[in-house]
Design goal:
The protein is an alpha+beta fold and 368 residues long.
C-alpha cells in the first residue's frame, strides 16, 4: 500500500470513522482503523460491532493494499501534521507516514483480522433529505434513556409511513415525538440505539456532499448512505412502548409563550436548582403570566414571563433540565404548554400543527 493525499482530507475522513471506534473493548483490532487503497480511492473503516462506518477519499495511489492502524495514534499524528501532502506506505508490519520534515513509522495490524462490514442485500432504498433526518433526530434523541438496564428505552423508534416519518424517544420521565412529511414509500417500524443516532447527526453535519441520503433497512440492521460515507448500525430487538396511549387527550390549562423568553428564564432559575432536588423549578401559572422560581441554601430566584393563558391557574414543579432540553430542541418563536393538574404530565407542542409533541412528568412540590 502506497498513496499520497492532503492532510485536510485525511483528517476529515479519520474524524468520521473514529466515531465507530470501540474505546472500551479488550479486542485490539476494534481499536483500529482499516485502511484500504484500491482504484485511486482510500477507504477508511471502523467498527465496534454495533456501529460500523466506512468513508472514502480520492488519493494518488502507486500501490494498492490494506492495513489496520491504531485509531488514536494514527489520528493524533495526522492531525498534528502541517497542512500539506501526506505520503503513506506500508511494509513489513509497519505504516510509514511522511509529511515535509516529519517521518513516522508505527505498528500495523493485519487487515484480515478486521471485522467485515457487510452490505445489506436489498435494493429497496428510502431517499431522505439529510436536513430532514438530522432535524428529526435532534428533536427526540435527548429523551432516550442512557441507562443500559432499560433496554429498549435506550433506542429511538423510527416509524415509517408512506408519506411520513415519525420518530419517538422516552426514558420514563419524558417523551419526545417528532414527524416530517416525507415520501418513504413504505410502512414499517424499527428501533435504533440513541447513541448511534447521535453519531449519525454528527456525520451528516460534517458531510458536504449531496443533500440527499439513502436508508436501507433489514430486520436487524440499517444502512445509511451518503455520497462518500456508509454507516451500518445494528437495530434493537423488541416491542416499543405504546406511546400514543401515554399522551393525554385533554387539559385544564393552556399556555402560549415565547420560547426564547421561557428558555432564558428557566436557564437563570436553574442556576439555583440543585441536582439532589431534581433540578427543581416551580412554575406559577395565572392569567397572563408564568412566574418561574427556584430556591436552595445559597439563595432564591424569581423570573416573570408574559404568556397567553387559558383555563385554570396552576402551580407545578419540573426538573429544569427536561424543560430546557425541549426548548433547545425546537426553533419556533412561540410554544404551547397543555397541563392538567400539578401531578399530571405536561404536553409541549407547537402553537399550530403537529410537527412535535413532548411529554414531561412533573416533580411533586409543596404548594403552600
Amino acid at each position: 500500500m502506497k498513496f499520497t493525499c492532503t492532510q485536510i482530507a485525511l483528517v476529515k475522513a479519520i474524524n468520521t470513522v473514529s466515531r465507530a471506534v470501540s474505546v472500551r473493548t479488550t479486542i485490539p483490532i476494534l481499536k483500529g482503523i482499516l485502511m484500504n487503497v484500491k482504484d485511486g480511492r482510500l477507504t477508511l473503516s471502523a467498527s465496534d460491532l454495533d456501529l460500523s462506518i466506512e468513508t472514502s477519499i480520492d488519493v494518488q495511489a502507486s500501490e494498492e493494499g490494506s492495513a489496520v492502524v491504531s485509531s488514536k495514534l494514527f489520528g493524533d499524528i495526522i492531525r498534528k501534521l502541517p497542512n500539506s501532502l501526506v505520503n503513506i506506505s506500508s511494509a513489513e508490519g509497519k505504516i510509514n507516514i511522511q509529511c515535509i520534515g516529519s517521518d513516522f513509522s508505527i505498528v500495523a495490524l493485519p487487515s484480515d483480522e478486521f471485522p467485515v462490514i457487510g452490505s445489506i442485500e436489498t435494493k429497496n432504498f428510502i431517499e431522505l433529505k439529510k436536513e430532514d433526518l438530522s432535524e428529526l433526530i435532534k428533536r427526540i434523541v435527548f429523551a432516550a434513556s442512557i441507562d443500559e438496564k432499560k433496554g429498549i428505552l435506550t433506542g429511538c423508534l423510527m416509524n415509517f409511513e408512506p408519506d411520513c416519518l415519525e420518530m419517538v424517544a422516552l426514558d420514563g420521565f419524558r417523551m419526545a415525538v417528532a414527524k416530517k412529511a416525507v415520501n418513504t414509500g413504505e410502512s414499517r417500524k424499527i428501533i435504533v440505539p440513541a447513541r448511534i443516532l447521535s453519531e449519525i447527526t454528527k456525520i451528516l453535519s460534517d458531510d458536504e456532499g449531496s443533500d440527499t441520503i439513502s436508508l436501507v433497512i433489514e430486520d436487524k440492521k440499517i444502512e445509511i448512505l451518503t455520497e462518500d460515507t456508509r454507516v451500518v448500525a445494528r437495530l434493537l430487538e423488541g416491542d416499543f412502548i405504546k406511546y400514543n396511549e401515554i399522551i393525554p387527550s385533554s387539559y385544564k390549562t393552556r399556555v402560549i409563550t415565547g420560547r426564547e423568553d421561557m428558555l432564558s428564564s428557566i436557564e437563570r432559575a436553574s442556576l439555583l436548582a440543585k441536582e439532589g432536588k431534581n433540578n427543581l423549578v416551580k412554575l406559577t401559572i395565572s392569567k397572563d403570566s408564568i412566574d418561574i422560581s427556584s430556591r436552595s441554601e445559597e439563595g432564591n430566584v424569581n423570573e416573570h414571563v408574559g404568556a397567553e393563558v387559558q383555563g385554570d391557574d396552576l402551580v407545578i414543579g419540573f426538573n429544569s433540565k427536561y424543560l430546557l432540553d425541549v426548548l433547545k430542541a425546537v426553533s419556533d418563536d412561540e410554544i404551547c404548554f397543555e397541563l392538567g393538574t400539578s401531578v399530571s404530565s405536561c404536553l409541549i407542542k407547537p402553537v399550530e400543527g403537529n410537527d412535535y409533541t413532548y411529554l414531561v412528568l412533573p416533580v411533586r412540590i409543596s404548594v403552600a
